[in-house]
Design a protein that fits this description.
- With 243 residues, the protein is an alpha+beta fold.
- 34% of the residues lie in helices and 23% in strands.
- It is built from 7 helices and 8 strands; from the N terminus they run βββββααααβββααα.
- It has a 5-stranded mixed beta barrel with strand order 1-2-3-5-4. A 3-stranded antiparallel sheet has the order 7-6-8.
- A hairpin with a 4-residue loop joins β6 and β7 (175-177).
- The longest helix has 17 residues, at 87-103.
- The protein is elongated and about 65 Å long.
């Protein structure tokens, strides 16, 4: 069988038969793939814990008829252990992998920018670089932006003029609106909420790590949930666990 080598992050696993697992991974060069790891559930599996969720691995994969087969797996970065040791980090990591799993529905579609964002977020969680909840929320918004669903946060989506205070938000229309032209579905958003939301989209940690020590206002978190649910067409289940 033809072989290919790639770097990957394990998103999820599923049991197959008595001893095997199906491993869903996002790879650097081949997009999302699903591959069988034969014998992965055995106590003395040659893969050890290298094919568990959140692990970053170098894999050698054999092309199969319906599913590819993992031939080798070597650890590149063991994010799983430090993430699993902290509940908030573990929940945030689940938000992250659930988000990318949904955003990349097609297998073998290259998404290098999404891959870089994914390993950056997991690395930040493993190193406890910022508040886990905020890392998860920022990842969701930045991943959606890469997928083409970035909110318009400076100028009104109706008239195009810069938005001052008060600002109004319409998720369905794609961003902020001014006082004069806001639509009936829009709601008023406080300046601090808009500032935090903008920082999440931009990954601006100088704002997010500011006076609140990485804690987001409840209204900011609700806006992240609303935005992601609208554009992904269903809620991110793990996101609710961060509340």
């Amino acid at each position: 069988m033809p072989l290919y080598r790639d770097e990957a992050v394990v998103l999820r696993t599923a049991k197959l038969g008595e001893a095997d697992r199906i491993i869903t991974m996002l790879t650097r060069s081949n997009g999302k793939i699903r591959a069988v790891a034969k014998g992965a559930r055995k106590v003395k599996s040659r893969f050890g814990a290298r094919l568990e969720p959140f692990m970053r691995v170098d894999v050698l994969v054999a092309v199969g008829r319906s599913l590819d087969v993992v031939s080798q797996a070597e650890s590149v970065a063991a994010y799983a252990a430090p993430i699993a040791a902290d509940y908030d980090a573990y929940v945030a990591a689940n938000v992250i992998v659930e988000t990318i799993d949904r955003l990349v529905p097609t297998e073998h579609e290259r998404v290098p920018a999404q891959y870089r964002l994914l390993i950056g977020a997991l690395n930040a969680l493993a190193k406890h670089a910022h508040a886990p909840q905020t890392i998860g929320d920022s990842y969701v918004m930045r991943a959606l932006a890469l997928a083409g669903w970035s909110p318009r946060l400076v100028s009104c989506v109706v008239c195009g003029e810069p938005v001052g205070t008060p600002a109004w938000m319409s998720v369905a229309s794609g961003g902020v609106m001014c006082e004069r032209d806001h639509t009936p579905d829009a709601y008023r958003v406080e300046p601090t909420v808009l500032r935090q939301f903008t920082a999440l989209v931009r990954g601006d940690w100088s704002v997010l790590d500011g006076p609140t020590d990485g804690a987001l206002l409840p209204a900011t978190r609700r806006l992240v949930e609303e935005w992601s649910e609208y554009y992904m067409e269903r809620p991110i289940r793990s996101l609710r666990l961060l509340d």
